[in-house]
Write a structure and sequence with these properties.
The protein has helices at residues 2-22, 175-178, 192-195; strands at residues 73-75, 79-82, 89-105, 112-128, 134-141, 148-159, 162-170, 200-207, 216-223, 231-236, 243-248, 257-265, 283-293, 304-314, 317-329, 338-352, 357-368, 376-386, 392-403, 411-421. By secondary structure, it is mainly beta.
Length: 422
């Protein structure tokens, strides 16, 4: 028995070193814990564990601050909404133009008269429908306590950069009138604006996007000729004698006005915005316009007008001007019986004294060429503070008007205006 025990002990001592050699001496010297693709792994309970999940861990939910905008709503020179496919869009802009207007005329009292006014309170909606080849614009005005429709038009692209427009908008005759009243250097336009009959009207025209100042701009169209103002028509029932008043801007008789304009623009010019707020090298634009009336109502009253205008900007300096001429029908022939009635011009300059302050001045004249038509001259001096360009500015001007043989000091006006828009 003793010999058996001794043999067993000797056998154990001989086997233990071989086991020790087969086991790793240290974790750093072996692949302990590493499972190879061909290894069969059995868990402690004798069951093969499920394979590891190779999917990446879930990311944290995006915070509201990190969420990217969809691009369908926002602000870009106006608040906008557009469809996911980009075929429909709506942009909304607006502005309020408030005035303090004071005037003094040569009278025995020679008193200043005036009041606060909201001359323009505009809301504009524009965009495109069913793609970018069909555009629209609607502009309303709530100024002076008299709500009115200013613009309502549609533009359809015909191809090769040619558009057809129908609706109500500004007749493209005078650069200064075509520029928005909120984009002027001096709060009020020159006396030539009213003298030569610019305005809005209902009509149809072909154009090439002239309002964006392309290298060559052109437009030609026909309008009612009576303007945007509504008139009241009273019809009387012959049986009862009662009258019915109807307000409309549709003319009683068709008396069309044909208006055409062609111009040239240098690169980078904003041809329908006064003041050189952008700065930079020389930029300029020039154009010519024609307005002809047809005596469709056979009352022997019509007139024709021509106009040349320009604008130039460079390094904060801006200059603009226009020359006008108008004839009146003096016989039965609408073309051959025209006589010169008025000529006029205005010249205006401005300079950005600082990035926010500008000074400007203007001289204008309307010369009556027939008996009974008086001459009128205007001198205007003004200054403007631009908070955020034309969208937030305060402007003031002093205007001296001379009519006929009167003096410049016989009629003086002072205007303080604030324009705020988005």
């Amino acid at each position: 028995m003793k010999h058996a025990r001794a043999f067993a002990c000797a056998l154990a001592l001989a086997w233990l070193p071989s086991v020790a050699v087969a086991q790793p001496a240290d974790e750093d010297e072996a692949d302990e814990g590493t499972i190879h693709e061909d290894d069969e792994v059995i868990g402690p309970d004798g069951v093969e564990p499920p394979p590891p999940d190779d999917a990446p861990p879930p990311s944290d939910p995006p915070s509201a601050d990190k969420a990217k905008p969809t691009g369908n709503t926002g602000y870009d020179k106006g608040f906008f909404i557009k469809s996911d496919d980009g075929k429909f869009s709506l942009k909304m802009t607006g502005r309020v133009h408030s005035f303090l207007a004071l005037t003094r005329a040569k009278t025995p009292a020679a008193d200043w008269t005036g009041a606060f006014e909201i001359r323009q309170a505009r809301l504009v909606l524009d965009g495109h429908l069913h793609g970018k080849n069909l555009k629209y614009r609607v502009q309303t005005d709530f100024g002076r306590g008299n709500p009115s429709l200013r613009d309502f038009l549609a533009d359809a692209h015909l191809g090769a950069g040619v558009w057809v427009r129908a609706g109500q908008w500004k007749r493209p005759f005078s650069r200064q009138f075509m520029a928005s009243s909120g984009r002027l250097e001096i709060p009020e336009r020159a006396i030539t604006d009213r003298a030569f009959g610019t305005g809005r009207d209902i009509g149809v025209a072909l154009h090439n996007g002239y309002e964006d100042s392309p290298a060559i701009e052109w437009t030609f169209g026909v309008w009612n000729g009576t303007g945007e103002a509504a008139t009241t028509r009273v019809t009387t029932d012959p049986m009862t004698g009662t009258g019915t008043a109807t307000t409309s801007n549709v003319p009683r008789e068709f008396k069309p006005a044909f208006v055409g304009r062609i111009g040239i623009n240098s690169p980078g010019i904003k041809g329908y915005s006064e003041a050189d707020l952008e700065g930079g090298p020389l930029r300029w634009a020039a154009a010519a316009s024609f307005w002809g009336e047809a005596d469709f109502d056979r009352n022997d009253q019509s007139n024709d007008r021509v106009e040349l205008d320009f604008i130039v900007k460079a390094q904060g300096f801006s200059g603009s001007g226009a020359f006008y001429a108008m004839t009146q029908q003096a016989g039965t022939h609408v073309l051959s019986d025209q006589e010169l009635a008025y000529i006029g011009f205005h010249a205006q300059v401005g300079y950005m004294l600082t990035p926010s302050w500008q000074g400007a001045g203007r001289f204008a004249m309307v010369d009556g060429r027939q008996d009974g038509l008086l001459d009128t001259k205007e001198i205007a001096v003004g200054g403007t503070y631009y908070g955020w360009g034309h969208d937030a500015k305060i402007a003031a001007d002093v205007r001296l008007l001379k009519t006929g043989e009167a003096k410049f000091t016989d009629a003086v006006s002072f205007t303080l205006a604030a324009n705020v828009g988005f």
